[in-house]
Amino acid sequence: TSAKMRRGTLEAYKQAFLVPVKLTDRRAVYLNRATQDRADFVVRRLEDRGAKLSILVERIEYAHLEDYADEIEEWRKL
Predict the structure, then answer these.
(1) What's this model's pTM, rounded to 2 decimal places?
(2) Which Pfam family, any one, appears in the UniProt record (predicted)?
């Protein structure tokens, strides 16, 4: 993989998961310590314009719910 491709992939990852957003009406989410430590490491290493662990978790969960929205709706009806 070329450095240019990796850089493009890194930028896409940052745009997808590390761009800060204002979280309103927040709720607590609990993670296993090992998972949190790994996610903290990712955020610290790739931090871009003030990204935080809560943003990473929010963006990953949002993407997951969007990706599986149709399936979740069908499963809900079972």
Answers:
(1) 0.78
(2) DUF3408
pLDDT band at 1 (very low <50, low <70, confident <90, very high): low
**Cβ atoms of residues 21 and 50 within 8 Å:** no
H or E element that contains 56 = helix 53-67
Put residue 47 in one of left, alpha, beta given phi > 0 → left and psi -120 to 50 → alpha.
beta
CA atoms within 13 A on the CB side of 11: 6
What is the rounded average pLDDT of the residues 11-31? Answer: 91
